[in-house]
Every structure is written in structure tokens, then in C-alpha cells.
Amino acid sequence: MKLTGQRAKYLALLLLCVVCVQADFVEPPQLATALRSFAESQTRLPCHYQVEEGEKVVQVTWYKDLPDGSKDQIITAHFVDGHTEFGRYSGRVRFESASPTVNSALLIPSTEESDKGSYTCHISTFPNGNFERHITLTVWILPISSLDPVLLVEGQSFRVAASCRAVGRPPPRLTWDTDLPGQFQERSQEGGSVSSYYSLHPLRSMNGKKLDCLVWHPGLEQPRRISYSLVVQYPPDAAITSTTGDWYVGMKNAELTCSGGGYPKPQNITWTWKGEALPDGVSEVGEKLVFGRALHMNDSGVYKCVLRNEVAAGSAEYTVTMTETSKRQGETTIDNLLLIIIGASAGALVLVLVMVVLLVNRYHRHKNKKLEIELNEKTEEIQSFSRQASFRRLNSVSTDPRLQSEDYSLLRVDSRIKSSDISLERPIYRGSQSTLGGKWGPSEVVEVDELGRPVVWNNGQESLRGAELEEEERMRRVESYVKNSNMSLDSGLPSSLVPLKAQQDEGVGPIKPDTALPREGDSPQGVREDWPPPPVAEGHDEEVDNSSYHISEALNNHFYYRNGVLRPKPHSNAILLHPRGQII
């Protein structure tokens, strides 16, 4: 029991020491660390002890653990005597820092496979004693790979086409990337060497196909590819071709060509004629047999070419049969005749098409010309009619638009008379004012509007003088119009006042022309032949009397009164105008 308690105390003290030691190292922080490196590259073994206050590193020593349990000293650094390298490590290792007692990391510039193993960093301090760190180093060797092709020949048995080898640590893995039908076999050897063999049955169709080897290793980010194209040799297949199949006497520039496949490409070509040498004037130019002269009848026979490559030889024969004349002459004559017939037919068709196009073009031009003549005639007719209508308008319409409007309105008094209380049967005049009705006394002055109608609603005496002046001005305009007009007044009347056409009166059916109407110069029936001169009121001058007289005379010469309607006298040269200005 006492021994067991002492052992427990020793273990507790050891754990406490370990915790204290772990707290004193900056790197590596763990007591045991595993590292991995590659051969022929630099390897760093970390060891950095952090001293406490009042503590000092006296010596640093690196050891390598041997398989038998002993240690092999590599290098030592003393704070006074400097550093020392030992044995086979001399010149192969060094401290990373110039102050090994501060930073004790060890560098191996060129790592070898033999450098793998366990390393110990031993730190001696004062006054706290010794401290250690253990590091296990694994050395990887990147694979060294190669591919060895095998020469194949068509017709050989199933065999190895290529072999791929790789050496590395850890041992690599090999695969094949190809579309060729075959099998592969892998073999491993000591020292990390791996080999793979790809076997197949060689065919000429496999020549040039891809057969790549892939090398896989943990030290590689992606597999290493070794590219290779399979090589399969096979003999040539000779064949003879001719530029023409018709051989006749006198033919020039005749040739025969000997061609064939094979791998590698044939370099040796031999020509023979009937198993003997070629005739005179015939020579070999590469793959061709050229006749440098016109053919003779005795050039007939069997021509043979032989092609050779590294595998075997291939041959072909061609029989030449000479004729006196060309077989194609008759065929040429027939072909020429057919070409002539086809060309003539095409020419005739083209000629017919051209004639049709010309006739159609001529027809359309003639039709267009005829239409143009008719259009010109119609245009001239319309223009002539327009000029006549314009002349008639000029003779029938006053140049003063205001007079035209007032006179036209005056001539339509028949529709106004029906709606007024004026009667033409008893005209009463007072001075220069004309009252068309007899309802007003002689002493009463009536105001009229712009159409000469009395204003029945205006009975005031204040505007009598103004009305007289307006009526006087209006009568002057009418007189001027009558004197200056070269037309018959009936030309400006609406169609409702013309008795010569069948018109539709207001509320009445069509009116037949009156056969009893008087001719020009005669007094129509029911017309008041004697229009009484307007009486002149006292106080007016002679000019007013003349105006009233002319108006009365114009009414007697151009109008007659019938059935309560003022109608124009018929005239042979009269131009009838529609109320909207259209020529009837």
C-alpha cells in the first residue's frame, strides 16, 4: 500500500512537470508532433523554448532515434562554445537561427529518404533543468514515371502494346486512359516501384489511337498524364489508276498512278511492263508512270507497280488495250448533237419569251397612249365647260359681292312676300321709300330691312329719318346693279322661280311647264303691264324720282306677278343657277 501511494505521488509530480514543460515551448506546442516532407526538398523541424524570468538556455542538442532504441547525436549548440555537427550529418543540417539558444529549429536543406524517423530536441536550462520535444518525420518521394511503347505489326497475336512504370513513396497507382479494346496488368516491387502493362490484338485501325498512362500519388494535386499514340505497322495496298479509260493510237500525255496505304509510308516504287523493262519514252516520276510521247499500238500490255515499306510489299497490275481511234469520238458526236438540240430549243424558248414580252409591252403602251388621249380630251372638255361657266358667271354676277348678295336676296322676294303683310297689288311710295304693302297710310313712314321688307314691329317715330337714309342707299345700289348688269335678272333666281323646268314647290308636287306662257317680248298672262310709277313725296329731289322710275322699269321688263308670286320672264340666253351656286 505504501508503494502504491508513492507511485501515485510520482505520477502526479510527473504530470505536473509535463504541464509545466508544455507551457514553456512556443513550438511545437505538443510533446510529440508528426511532420511530412518530400525527398530532395528542404525540411524544417521546429523547436522554440520560451524562457522565464531568471531562466537561461545553456545548451540545445538534436538527436535521432535509432531502431535499436539508441540515439544518434546530430548537432549541438552551447551558449558559450557555439554549435557542433556530428558524423554523417555534418554539412547536411544546420540551425535555422543564428542564436540557437533562442530559436532551436533544425533545417535539412536536401531531404533524403533515409532522413525519415523520430527526432528529439533537448533543451538544457539553468536553473530549471532539461526539457524535450519529439518529432516524427515522414519522407515522401514524388513518383518518377515513364512509358515504354512496343512496336506492333498487323497480324501479330495478342501481346503487350505499352508498359508504364513509376517509383515513389508511398507507392503510386497507375491507370490507362484509352478507347482501345485491351487489358492491363499491374505489378508492385519493393522500394515503391509500380509497373502496369497494357495488352491487345494489333490491327491497322488501331494505328494512331490514344493510349495514355495516368500516375496517381498523394503528393500530386492531380494525376500525372503520360501521353502516347499507339503504333501499328501494316503493309501497303497498291492500286493503279488512270486519267482516262480510253487508250488509242496518237493519244498524248497519258499517265498511270500507283498509290496505296501502309504504315510506314512506302518509299520504294517499281514499275514493270509485261514483266520486263518499260518501253522507250515511258518513265517513272514518283508514284506516276508518264508516257512522254504519243501512244503506239505496241504500248498495249500489262503494267505492274510494286510498293514496299518496312513491313512488306504490295503490288497491283493494269492492262492497257490500244485502239486505232478513240471510243469517245462517236459518243462525242452524239453528245454534241444532243447539246445542239438542247441549245436550239433553249434559244427558241428564249426568243418566244422575248416576243411575248415585246408584244405585251407594245399592247400596254398602245393602251396607255389611248387612255392618255381620252384623258386629254376629257380634260379639254372639262376646261372648256369650266371656261364657259366662268364667262357666264362673270356676265351674271356683279363684281361687288355685297351687291350680289343683296340683289340675290331682293330677287327672292316671292318667299318673303308670303310671310309678310306687303302686297304688290297696291304699292305705296313715300318719297324715296317704297312700301310694298298698303296697310300703312300715306302719312306713315315704314322702316325696311336689308331685303326691302317693312319692319312691322318697329312703329316708333324716332328712327324714321335713319330708315329713310338706309332705304335711299339701298335703292342706289339696286339702280347701279340694274344699269351695269349685262345679263338677265332671271339668271340669279333660285330654281323655285323658274317656270321652264319641272320643279317641286313647297308642299306641292312637280309643276308641269305652262304652255300658255308668253314668249320673250310678250306680256304673260296675269302680268300687270303698267307698273304705276312710284309717287314722290314732297320735299325730295329729282334724283330720288329717277331712282324709283328705274326700279319700276326694271321690274316691268324682267318680272311678272302671278298668283301672288313674283316670277322672272323667260329668256333664251338665261343661265339658271341653283340657290347653292351650281349651274343647272
TrEMBL record:
Disordered: annotated span: 505-544
Gene3D superfamilies assigned to the protein according to its UniProt record, in alphabetical order: Immunoglobulins
SMART domains with a match to the protein in the record: IG
Signal peptide location: 1-23
Residue runs in coiled coils: 361-388
A matching Pfam family: V-set
SUPFAM superfamilies documented for this protein: Immunoglobulin (SSF48726)
Keyword Cell cycle: no
Domain Ig-like: 29-138, 143-227, 236-321
Protein's recorded name: Ig-like domain-containing protein
Source species of the chain: Eleginops maclovinus (Patagonian blennie)
